[in-house]
Amino acid sequence: MTDSDLREIILTGIGVSPGICIGKAYLVDVEGVDIVEKYHISQLHVHSEIKRFKLAVKRAKNELRTIIENTPDAIKDHVDILETHVILLKDKLLYGKIIETIETDFINAEWALKKVVSSLKAMFLNMSDPYLKERAIDIGHVSDRILINLVGSEKINIATIDKRAVLVAADLSPAQTSQIQLERVKGFITDKGGGTSHTSIIARTLGIPAVSGLDHATKSICNGDLIIVDGISGNVIIHPSEQTLVTYEERRIEYEFRMAALDRQSHLDAVTLDGHRFMVMGNIELPEEIVSVLDHGGDGIGLYRTEFQYLGRPDYPGETELYDKYKDVVEVMAPRPVTIRTLDINGDKALDRPIESVEDNPALGLRAIRYCLKHPNVFKTQLRAILRAAAYGNVRILFPMISGFEEIQEAKAMLHTVSDELKEEGIAHNRDIEIGIMIEVPSAVILSDILADAVDFFSIGTNDLIQFSLAIDRGNRQVAYLFNPLHPAILRLLLQTVDAARAKGKRVFMCGEMAGDPLHIPILLGLGIQEFSMNPNAIPLAKQTIRSLNVEEMRIFLSEILKEKTAQAVMERVQRRFGQEGGHGV
Ligand code: PEP
Ligand code: MG
């Protein structure tokens, strides 16, 4: 039977990396090793069974080490997750408990592994902290790897796939994704996962189309099936008809043509039709990402999320380590601005801590500036590193999760103390830098007229502002349909913030995800947002969108938008005027 004899099936998931690809499915069957036999062993065999288990762990560790060493430089950052897997292999809760279970229950190593892993996964999944919840996924990956070595299943070796395939998997681990060779893999789809998983982040870094959260893709697709992956809409089409193939081939060519055209123009300034220039910057998590910001025509770094240097390690980074990293970024970007946000830890990005200290509601807990003010030594170390790096270029400092005036005062007092100390010690630094705050807590909007007195600029973090003002957990898929930046309440909060800042002669930037969507840009221009910061890949389209608009017209358009009563009505009005994808005019 050929693909054309089969019925076309459409699956819908979450588009986690944009683009379209068409190719033959290649199933990465990690679930296959799930069929685990249980059998009892005699006391006599306990020792050899434990030895067999230890050997499997050793092999798993060697495999991980090889993958880490062979990971391409472009995605080297993600080896941290693999290093965590290496540590997990020997974790007492896993390794120690499995050995203990073999000894006490007299069962085979595979069954002991399955038993311990199920209870460990359940324990982590029951935790409310999303970071700890995610550890259940890591435990799953580590256990699959040990199991493959125990049962001797055929190894999955993505690195050796020799055709241009589309990978289909229940879940791709970061280790597997990091083995993807661009010339061999066109894209991938997974049953599990969502837009913020490490795997999706790697897909976006590699620039290949990907769809996650498909639930049953591995059950509906067989090896060699022809499939279309649409990473923009989140659709996956199995056995496409001739007509569908033609349509998607045209869309693919058009998409690639559009991206190439955008990239060619990404170094042009974002100047509107009526002559206003806007800075379009990149958000980065790791210093290496500045390359992508520059390649995509970024005018600077609007948000450097510094917390990633603190994750997945038992200690805090020292001043020199931080200073070296910040200095690299600042020097390469100079004279463009680099906005260094101080540690925003313990919301969805938690430090490694004992389980007892995990909060029930971390998004509202001791995170970000609250954490820093309670841990002055950690804060001061970071502030010293920032002021020292500031001697090498154009640095701005940004305090996250500010909810009231006193937090700014305390943070600024700390900054001055640190600066005085550096001066006394005769260490080169620059204390004359701009100070800003994230506007991401509703109380900061309400107080924005007062807060504006204390800072040089505001940067609006819509990801948290929407979460807190519309009461939507940003990581909860059940309420994701309510997470809408065009909600009239959000537009009013933005307007209030901009008006308050403007009255005090202060500038307002936006670094939340809202800033990178071409559908939102006409409204943001009308509001008077002065600088935009986003995922580096979104920069070319955002610049092009700005170049196609007229600020005066957008101000008038905004006054119409503000009369609408629902997010849906706002969206329809935007789409009526600018089309389905916004006003980028490409
Ligand atoms: C935000 O909240 O919008 C933001 C930019 O910060 P983060 O996504 O790191 O919380
Ligand atoms: Mg935030």
What does it look like?
By secondary structure, this protein is α/β, with parallel strands linked by helices. The chain folds into three domains: 6-30 and 156-246, Phosphohistidine domain (Glucose Oxidase, domain 1); 43-151, PtsI, HPr-binding domain (Enzyme I, Chain A, domain 2, Orthogonal Bundle), CATH 1.10.274.10; 274-578, TIM Barrel, CATH 3.20.20. The protein is 45% helix and 14% strand. The chain contains 22 helices and 17 strands. An eight-stranded mixed β-sheet has the order 1-8-7-3-4-5-6-2. Strand 9 and strand 10 form a beta hairpin. Helix 3 (92-105) crosses helix 4. The chain is globular, with a radius of gyration of 26 Å. The site of phosphoenolpyruvate has 10 residues, from strand 11 and helix 17.
How would you briefly describe this protein structure?
By secondary structure, the protein is an alpha/beta fold. It has helices at 46-70, 79-89, 92-105, 109-125, 130-151, 174-178, 198-206, 217-220, 242-265, 290-295, 319-333, 368-374, 376-389, 405-424, 442-446, 448-451, 462-469, 488-503, 521-527, 539-547, 551-561, 567-578; strands at residues 9-12, 14-17, 20-28, 165-169, 185-190, 210-212, 226-230, 235-238, 270-271, 277-284, 301-305, 337-341, 394-399, 434-439, 457-460, 507-510, 531-534.
Short key terms for the protein model shown above:
586 residues; alpha/beta; Glucose Oxidase, domain 1; Enzyme I, Chain A, domain 2; TIM Barrel; 3 domains; eight-stranded parallel β-barrel; binds phosphoenolpyruvate; binds magnesium ion
